[in-house]
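By way of example, we now present a protein record of this kind:
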Amino acid sequence: MKVPGIKSISSAASLPQKLLLYSSAISLLAGAFFYFGGLNLMQWIEDRVNEQELATSAPFAIKAFRQGAPEPLKIGLHVTAYHSAELLPPEYNKALNYPKEFLGEVFINDDHPFLHELFNAFDSEDQSDQEYFLYRSQFDLFGHQKDLFLVMPTDNIELAKSEWLMINAGLFAVILTLFGLLSYAIHKVSQRLVEPVNQLSQQLSSPQFKEFSVPQESATEFNFLAKSLNHYKQQNELMIKQEQAFARYASHELRTPLTVILGAAKLQETTDKPEFQLKQRQRINRAAQDMQHTIDALLSLVKQEKSSYKSEFRQLEQAEVEAIIEPLKAEAHQKSLAIELSFQQAPLIEPSPAVLRMLLTNLITNAIHASDSDTIYVNIQSQAIRVIDKGQGLAPEGTQSQEGHGLGLMIVDNLCQRYGWQFDLVQGEDKGCIATLCLPKANWR
C-alpha cells in the first residue's frame, strides 16, 4: 500500500540488481581509465627512452663533426646526425620548423601529436615510417654556429602494430576478467546481505511460520537478529497466554464466591429471622474474603510478571495453612469429609500468601469434589506439599470436567510452572488421588 506524500522505496530484493548495475558502471569507467592510462604510460616510457638516447648521442656527434666527419653521420644503429639544413632528406624537412633545443617525436602527416599518440594503437595500418624522433641544437664548428639535427626513425625502435594489438588484447582480457570477478563478488556479497532481510520479511508476512530463521552462511548479526525476533515472538506469545490464563483464573476463581453472594442476598429476602440473616451475612463475608484473596493472588501474579518485581523466599507457617483449610471444612463437612493437616517441616517457598491460598484451595476443593466420604490429608514437608484423598480416583483421559480434576488443577499446574515447582497428580495405592507440589531442590532444607 502506497502512503500519500511518502516517496516510494524499492524493496530489499531489488537492491542486489541495483548495486550490481552501479558497480558495473563504476567498473567500466575505472577500466577505461586504467586502459587508456596504461597505454599512454607505456608510450610515454617508450618515448622518454628514445629521447634519452638522442640526447646522449649529441656530444658524440659534435665531437665527430669537429674532427671532420662527413654528414650524414651514423651514430649507432638508429641515430643519424646532420649540421647542414640542405642535406636533410625531404622526409625530415619538418625539423626546420622546430625551435632550437627541441627534443621529441615528430609526426610527418599529423598536426595533432597528442591525438595521434592516443589513437595510434588502434590504427590498423603501420605508420611508423611517418614518425621520427628529433633533437635540434647548435654548436660551434670552426668558428661558425651550426645547427645540429639528430633524427631517429621509429620503424625499428618502437613497438610494432602487431605488438600493440597483443598489448591491447591483454589489457582488455585483464580488465574484463577483473570486471567479471568484481561483479560476481559484489553480487554474492549483496545476496548474502539482502537474502536474510528478504527471508525475515517473508516470514513476517506469512501467518504460518513458526520461528524466524536466516541462511546458515548469513553474517553473525543476522543470526543474532533472528534469535532476538524469536525471543520477542516467544515473549509476545507468552504474554498472550498469560492474559488468557488471567481471564480464565478470574472467571473460575470468582464465579463461586459471586454465586454464593448472590444466593445469600436472595435468601435474605425470604425471611427476617435474625439467625437466618446472620448466617447469610456470614456466608457473604466469607465469599467476599475469598474474592479478596483471589484478587490479591491475581494481582501478585501480575506483579511477578514485571521485570522490576522480584519475590523473596519465605518460610511457610503452620498457622497460614490452617487459615487456608478452615473455610473449606464447612464444604467438606457437607459431604461427611474431614480435612487433616500434617505439618512435618516448614518449607521455604516463593509464592505470596494469596497465591499459596489459590494453590491449596484448588487442590483441596478438587479433592472434596472427587470424594464422597473419608478423610482428606494435607501433608507439609520441606521438599513437597501433598493433598491426598480417598475419592473416585483419576477420571479417564479426556473426560475431566471443570469440576473435580479439571480447570482448577490446570490453574495449579500453570502457577507451579511460574515458580519452578513440579505438579504431579497420580492414582492412589488403594483409591483416590495424590496431588503433589514438588519444591525445587534449591529450597530443600
